[in-house]
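PROTEIN DATA CARD
Card holder: Dymeclin
Chain length: 244
Origin: Schizaphis graminum
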Amino acid sequence: MYTIQPSSSLIIYRIFMENIDAAKLSKALLQRYTEQIKPPVLSGGGIFYGLASNLWNILTLSTNVPVQTNQSPLSSLSISVLLILINHCTSPPPPKGNPYRTCIASLSDNLVVIYQFLGDNPDAPLSEEKTLLLYHLIHCNPSFKSFLLARTDIEVVLIPLLRTIYNTQSSRFQHMYMALIVLLILTEDQLFNKTVHSIILKGATWYQERVVSEISLGGLIILVTTRTAQYNLLKMRDKYLHIN
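Structure generated from the sequence above:
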């Protein structure tokens, strides 16, 4: 609920920002997100079934109505909580700023697992949660940014990112804008610009404006961003998009 009280005076604020081990909680939430643990499949009845079902519903805030989704409810809630904690209180207090943002900025464990998870579905755009997480890791975490830029298979993450930008009509504008910001940060690095032009892709069937049988990753970036600029001129007409 909305309140005019400053967040630093709220009990829930003090609990999460001052009385909880932010590093452990951040890593646990990130682990739950990347693990994608599915809800338990339970059959039969009885007291144990009821207890297990109720416990799972409490943990995931879900109901007994089946939902067709590829993402684990626990995973979805974990990344939502983590992103809320990271984006809340972006300037001091508490002591030395937001401890969850500090944890993400200093994260150096399991970078390969996180990288592979971000690019685990090259046939689809990045979800909003993945895009936001990728932004925070690239923007705040020098270790992850260096790790990403040093990858020789950077297309694993870049192709879903480009598909997010390409699918402007089906994506929320804020989502597409965040993906463009991530791409802009990456293109500031000279090694990245050299690497993407050396990676040759065999076809990009999702790009429908022309037949692309073989193209460099750098060339695909140019195609997608040019199309986005044209679409913005015709439909969205956002002057800030062209300025950036």
